[in-house]
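Morning!

As promised:
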Amino acid sequence: MFEFSVACKYLRPRRRQLSVSVISLVAISVIAVVAWLVVVFFSVSEGLEQSWIRKLTALTAPLRITPTEGYYQSYYYQIDALSDASNYTLQSIEQKRLSSLTDPYNIEIDQEIPDNWPSADLNAQGKLKDLVKLAYQALTEVNDIAGLQAHDFELTPTHIRLNMIRPATLLHGADMHNTRTTSSVSYPAYLGNFDPHNTQIKQTLLPVEINDINNFFNLLDLAPSASSNEKTTHLFFNQTILQDRIKDFLQNISITHLKVSPAGWNIPKNILPDSFNWKVCFIMKDNRIIRVMIPENESELNSLFNTLETQGLKIVRGFLHKKENAISALLANQPPQTLTANTPLTLTEGGRFAAKFEMHSLNKIHQINELIFQLSLNIQNTPLSGKVRFQGLQIADADIEPSAQDLLWLSNTNNVNNDTLILPQDKQIGEGIILPKSFRTVGVMMGDRGTLNYIESTASTIQEQFIPIYVAGFYDPGIIPIGSKFLLGSPTLTSLIRSSYGSSINEQAGLTNGINVRFRDLEQAHKLKHILQKKFEEKGIARYWKIETFRDYEFAHEIMQELQNQKTIFMLIALIIILVACSNIVSMLIILVNDKKKEIGILRAMGASSYSIALIFGSAGACIGIVGSFLGITLAIFTLHHLDSFLALISIISGQTLINPALYYTKTLAPTLSPSALAFVFIATLAISLLAGIVPAIKACSLRPSNILKTGSD
Amino acid sequence: MSVLLEAKNISKKFYHPTQIEILKNIHLRIEGGDSVAIIGRSGEGKSTLLQIFGCLEEACKGDLWIDQQLITSKNRAKILNQKLGFVFQSFHLLEDYTVLENILMPARIARQSAGLNSPMTKRAWQLLAQVGLTTRAHFQVRLLSGGEKQRVAIARAMCNDPAIIMADEPSGNLDRQTGQLVHQLLLDFARQTEKALLIVTHDQELAAACSRCYELRDGQLHAYAQGN
């Protein structure tokens, strides 16, 4: 196009039109920066929102049907309390769904219905409407939503107590490897039922860590104690059970490497080589060597020395020497001292070494630390190998059988194609439950045992009940406000605890029982809500049920809204900055029009219409807008690909963590290039730069060619 | 003979700083093959008249037909592009473009292809040969001499094969010899192509070479007899 090519010619930087070039450059860079900011910000926040929604819908469901007040006040719900067929107890949604009787009341055997009892909601045939079955029926009638599944959910308050039993890390305790320490945490919490059909939940599960495997292994020999207070004594499994447990464990997990525990590892005398000369630190007491600390590499000696010294110990550096079966210590300015046979030689924490489990050691063990491994390692270039007990050591690496993972824990690393997920169970310990990741930050590991407590009141007593459980996994609850207290357990467990509350639980909130509806495409949530609403109205049960999509959830609404507000405010700011940038375009174009006055006259004399002239300057403005936004978008795509390093760079420059992903309920920011941001940048810059071009364009086409050309000289 | 320009009752007033009627009821008719010179003292309004005839300026009153089309504000730009070619005293070339690009500009304004092998480019090369500037085709125009610039301007004026070329003191800024070369090119245009030439000039010799000559005096055109 002629106008466009003229515009490009005008924009090409030239020395003769320096001011125009400089202003264009400024305008382009400002627009590029804004475009960059907008695209990066929106992509990050959209990625954030999507990850929130993914977690939210994975843990709850994209659509929920919950009973209203009307349901709990209905004859249908209340009548179970009067009926023998229902054991005189109120029934949950699942129980109602499975029950063969819509109206369990039997006038022959049950007590008389009181006067103020709610009246029954009857259908056209004069029978009581089965509110739950009708709701499920409505769900089965929906046929144009892919992958639709509906399952009930239950939620109950409970109390969790966990005992964290760890190998002692007291370095200088008298018997440092035979003690275990116990600490416990105890929280009020909510227990939700773990839905085996909800494979989506895998997205939120945290991977198992080597610490978790160690914890499982270290706890294999401990039996659950009868009392809830395990601080004082530990009960051990009898030998046969212990052997079975270890066999089960090792069938699934084969230990390949071990490492020294943080407390250090006393090198058994049997694997010490015939001769060596190691640089070591001697711990002294009353001028006697009470322990020798050996770093794995010579180079670590000084840092070891410093660490020990800060603990207030008297430390001397020197050599540990062995020749002809005599171990002697060489300290500076002192004659060699022969060490007593029982002075411990402790290897400090360092690298990992190859290890192989000795199967025959299973036969006579009572505790886990009696297991024997064949070990080969290298201390300061002296190779050592031999059979050692699992004492002061930890698992550093293990091969995990993928098929057997579900036996101990639930993790997202296993086969994704499984249609159902089974919460693991330990027949000696108890049921596995899944904890939110906040528990991990207080030191809980997978394998830790504890109890869920609830109060059961019978006619005569109020009794506290304990259900033994163990930690079978961690999940990331995302933005759910009660997420840090929200445990997932088997449906039977939830039902059991929930039923202990009787009817009072329903009065708290409708959220404790309901139906989760899952389907493939989240975008269809709104459509499905409308379909269901209509069907419920047709069936006359609309007033008993509340249908909500994930966007309506009260607990998520606020934070989503906040993100949306941030986006809106940012968009407004971006718009203002673009406006400012475009004011540069206006001044640039006005200067350009003045510069090119004569050319405008010439073009007009050659028959260029005023529209063409306006278009030349309009497209010059638009050109700057497009180039600027294109540059910005390219830069933004590059930034998004390298977001982590970019944030790290900013953090280094500003000296503080710029964006802490943990604050945003996610581990990593996973931005997705936001189409709406791209559209916004393109449309906004194009529209505003075109608008900016209007005034100069009008000025240009209102110039009279006769006036310009009349001035004779060149 | 076809009538290429017909002006009836053309009047022009200027209101600033004082009201003055510079052109009064001017009639003119130019046919194919005509070359018309308009002479007159400075300030009589010769250039204004030329610009009115050339559709660059609107008359206050009167009608103008170019190639039998009445000029209105709607068709003004198109007529200017298709039917008229302008040659100015101070050349008025586009400084950022090459010689060839300048010549092709009217064609590009008319949205005709100006590609390497397009008919318009071939025509531009012919015009360049006609004005004797083939070797300068890819020069930036600011590097040319005055005479060369004016020859480029003439080639440009002829680009869209106009009905009339309007020239305003075409040799005013040139030496005598170059001026004569320019005059010859313009007069040849009218003679050889049955098109018309309208020249505003002080140059008596050029006026004499034209087929008709008028003097603009007191806002009106008077036939100007040679030797007066």
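Strands of chain B lie at 3-14, 20-31, 35-39, 61-66, 69-70, 84-87, 164-168, 196-200, 212-217, 220-223.

Hope this helps with the figure draft.
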